[in-house]
Amino acid sequence: MLKLVIVVFLSVNLFSKDFLELYRTQGINAVEKELEKSLRDVNSWKKYLENKNVDYGFYETKEYVIVAQKNNKEMSVFAKNGDDFKKISKDNMIIGEKAGDKYLEGDKKTPEGSYDLVQKRTGLDQFYGPLALVTSYPNNFDQSLNKKGHGIWIHGMPLNGDRENYTQGCLALNNEKLKELEKNIDYKKTVLITSGDEFKKAKKEDIALILSSIYKWKDAWKTSNINEYLSFYSKDFKRADRSDFNTFANQKKQIFAKNENKIINLYNMDISPYPNSLGKKIYRAVMDEEYYSPSVKFVGKKELFLEVANNKVQILTED
């Protein structure tokens, strides 16, 4: 949190002497309130992002982005390079036999979205080549849509013999290219973005709106402002267990009615564009969360799937 506060401190439209005067006359709490206000201000974030490349997302922990375009069967790998991205490879790949987004077990389709690489596997059947990088499909958003299937990997080609020019849904590379990929990235710090059509780059105005909205949402959460808090959720909201908005809202109303004092910190944010077959502009945001109240203590990850439409951010799925 401190890192983010300092970053925004340098980007807000206040001069340091204003903060000095505020601190001198009203104390550190007044400065903190002003900084929190800046975190909720979309223009502060626009200024902060002004000279940053967010084409492939906004990342505070991830260092590599793999963009796999299904339409032309190309996989490009980008490494963060300061405030920019550097392309480090571009290779052909083979994908699922059938076109379209994955919804069913065994439908032979490659899923579309944004995924983590969660495991490196070796010692596999020779059919999969020298190694495989396991993706996080199905993620929470996939599950909220009742998508089925599992075991979506980035893997290689058979060590002995040929194979057909398609997979059951995985992404497959030439074995030497796969080994280069694994060598060039840290899979634990990598995001995989799979797009059915030509990849649509993220927009700075979307990222700024998302960041400011997350802090407005956090403020409503912290102050138990239930109406403001629920206004950030889409009426199409569903959890991974497919429980709907009304169920979620009723649960939150009971919790907020306690009006407990809360400490909520959100930091280490990674925001990636989320290609999808729904015709929506969606982003995936993952962050570290610290939550403390008299009844609950939680330290872990928070994941939000967000729709941006009509200059507004709505939460579609949360974990």
TrEMBL record:
Catalytic residues in the record: 155, 170
GO biological process, one term: cell wall organization
Keywords associated with the record: Cell shape, Cell wall biogenesis/degradation, Peptidoglycan synthesis, Transferase
InterPro entries xref list: Cds6_C, LD_TPept_cat_dom, NTF2-like_dom_sf, Transpep_catalytic_dom
Gene Ontology MF terms in the entry: carboxypeptidase activity; transferase activity
Domain L,D-TPase catalytic: 64-194
Pfam families cross-referenced by the UniProt entry: Cds6_C (PF24125), YkuD (PF03734)
Keyword DNA-binding appears in the UniProt entry: no
PROSITE patterns tied to this protein: LD_TPASE
This protein's pathway: Cell wall biogenesis; peptidoglycan biosynthesis
Similarity field: Belongs to the YkuD family.
The protein's name: L,D-transpeptidase family protein
Organism: Arcobacter cryaerophilus gv. pseudocryaerophilus
